[in-house]
Amino acid sequence: MKKVAMSAKVPQYPMATVLVGSHVNGKPNFITIAWFTMVNFKPPLVAVVMNKKHYTNKGIKENNTFSINFPSGEMVEATDYCSTISGYDADKSKLFDTFYGTLKSAPMIKQCPLTLECKLVETLTFATHEIFIGEIVEAFTEERYLTHELPDIKKMNPIIYTAYDNDYWQLGEKIGRARHIGRRIKKN
Ligand SMILES: Cc1cc2nc3c(=O)[nH]c(=O)nc-3n(C[C@H](O)[C@H](O)[C@H](O)COP(=O)(O)O)c2cc1C
């Protein structure tokens, strides 16, 4: 089949959408982001990639803490709202009910099925963006989102984002078990 060149910019594959929280001038602020990833198991490190201009960055630098909140599909409006306006122009602190862990300055969203409380360990600076690498101090969920004590993704109902068409999606069906289904292919 002939391949089509799409330019270096376009193909950002589907990504989970999260809300990163920080305390700016003593108040919670939340930004919608899709650029985040795990970077290490032990200690458990995560990275969030954020444009230098964003208000949330100020709070991360002020306190050396931030939160990562995984909204469910039912929260799509409020999640998108956080992308439509900056904390420089609007107070987003009352949009969600918040709670705190031991770090005290990483505001977490009660309505989110899963939240991570993070301590900043490193900041990488690029032309337009900064990468904040944080150590996960604690992860919070509720019994109702678990099955056999493990996160149940059907119950958590994460929001998936595709940048090329600018749409939000929900997950479809499970298609296989990782590190198992591939074993059906026998080595010659
Ligand atoms: C689905 C979606 C994903 C986004 N992902 C990112 C991202 O990964 N990094 C980033 O810097 N901005 C991202 N943005 C843009 C910010 O959410 C937006 O500029 C926000 O208003 C900044 O808020 P703040 O200034 O209060 O921090 C995204 C926007 C949308 C709609």
Give a topology summary.
Blueprint: E1 15-16, E2 18-24, E3 27-33, E4 36-40, E5 45-51, H1 55-63, E6 65-70, H2 76-84, E7 98-99, E8 108-109, E9 114-125, E10 129-140, E11 146-147, E12 150-151, H3 153-156, E13 160-162, E14 167-169
Antiparallel strand pairs: 1-13, 2-3, 2-6, 4-5, 5-10, 6-9, 7-8, 9-10, 11-12, 13-14
The structure holds flavin mononucleotide.
Features of the shown structure:
188 residues; mainly beta; Pnp Oxidase, Chain A; seven-stranded antiparallel sheet; 3 helices; binds flavin mononucleotide
Q: Can you put this structure into words, describing what you see?
A:
The protein has 188 residues and is mainly β. It has a single domain (15-184), classed as Pnp Oxidase, Chain A, CATH 2.30.110. Helix content is 12%, strand content 38%. It has helices at 55-63, 76-84, 153-156, and strands spanning 15-16, 18-24, 27-33, 36-40, 45-51, 65-70, 98-99, 108-109, 114-125, 129-140, 146-147, 150-151, 160-162, 167-169. The strands form four sheets. The protein has a seven-stranded antiparallel beta sheet with strand order 3-2-6-9-10-5-4. Strands 1-13-14 form a three-stranded antiparallel beta sheet, with no helix packed on it. The protein is globular. The model has no long low-confidence stretch (mean pLDDT 96). It binds flavin mononucleotide. Residues 17, 29, 31-35, 49-51, 54-56, 83, 85-88, 161 line the site of flavin mononucleotide (FMN).
